[in-house]
Write a structure and sequence with these properties.
Length: 325
């Protein structure tokens, strides 16, 4: 684990490595950005560099501290995650006790607190008191999906480190370079933020099959209503329905969007790149406004499902509306 092993996030790396180079490390950092953007990996790389005995802008990987880190037995690193849905005050108190005990020895201590925005108010206030009286040898790394959701008084006592999703083209290139299927990678980069999250989607057992089902439904939904309904019954709402359905509507929306890209000659933006021949024969069956209407139907079905309408009912009603035009 080092800065070089974390993909992208050049701005975040610059902030942290400049602090290491200039010996101006803050007592607390807030890593803010969507899951899958390398926040935890960079937090670990930073912690490893902070604890490295050679005190450079990255971990050496060879000293005793680095070797302990790599083997998972570095006592100067503490990690804390939510207990259930939230981080509770007792967890913060235990963290403070552990750090107080370990601070008796020499050297820096680092703690990583994941999903910091889930802290209960008592837990956040307890951590705030800890941050208000920083000990020089303790560095806090807080990770949050949305740093603005963290208590303002805690935010004001941390160094903000932003994490942004990489550009889709960059992400696609990296996934393909690492051996992932190009057609699956093209879809995954529109469903998640960051390399790790996209790679996890690609590796899901049902993802490739779900993509194939979407292609079948996309072709059938406009002119072969009965066939589309049979496909939905046989392929969507039986085996592994929950896992498959999570990606099905977002992918179907991308399918309809591809028709607009094809009409506009934007082939580099097409997700279902292996279906160009079919698109050449059918993309002009509807106007761009017609395809936008199809996308709106898919979005409407997603909204209804989030409002607790039965997924099968929402999906079937969407298919009826698509058929009506």
């Amino acid at each position: 684990m080092s800065f070089h092993t974390v993909a992208g996030q050049d701005k975040a790396k610059r902030i942290l490595q400049h602090a290491l180079q200039r010996d101006t490390v803050s007592h607390a950092y807030l890593f803010s950005g969507p899951p899958g953007t390398g926040r935890k990996q960079l937090a670990l790389a930073f912690a490893k560099a902070l604890l490295c005995e050679r005190a450079a802008d990255d971990a050496c990987g060879a000293c005793l501290s680095c070797r302990k880190f790599e083997h998972g037995n570095q006592p100067s690193l503490l990690q804390l995650a939510p207990d259930g849905a939230t981080i509770k005050i007792e967890q913060i108190r235990q963290l403070q006790r552990d750090l107080g005990y370990r601070s008796a020895g020499e050297g820096r201590k680092v703690y990583i607190l994941e999903q910091a925005e889930t802290m209960t108010l008592p837990a956040a206030n307890s951590l705030l008191k800890f941050l208000e009286e920083p000990q020089a040898q303790i560095v806090a790394i807080l990770i949050a999906d949305n740093g603005q959701a963290v208590l303002p008084t805690i935010r004001s006592r941390t160094q903000w480190v932003p994490f942004a999703p990489p550009a889709p083209a960059e992400l696609l290139e990296q996934l393909v370079a690492d051996g992932h299927s190009p057609v699956l990678a093209r879809a995954a980069i529109h469903l998640a933020s960051g390399y790790e999250a996209c790679a996890a989607i690609i590796q899901e057992e049902t993802f490739a099959e779900t993509r194939n089902v979407v292609i079948q439904l996309g072709k059938e939904s406009l002119t072969r209503f009965t066939a589309a309904m049979i496909t939905s019954q046989q392929q969507v709402f039986k085996a592994n329905a929950e896992q498959r359905f999570a990606h099905l509507l977002p992918l179907l929306l991308l399918w309809y969007k591809d028709m607009i890209h094809f009409q506009a000659g934007r082939q580099e933006s097409i997700v279902f790149i292996d279906q160009l021949e079919w698109m050449g024969q059918h993309a002009y069956a509807r106007t761009p406004a017609g395809w936008v209407s199809c996308m709106e139907r898919a979005l409407e079905a997603q909204t209804r499902i989030r409002a607790h309408v039965a997924p099968q009912l929402a999906f079937e009603q969407m298919m009826i509306h698509l058929q009506e035009g």
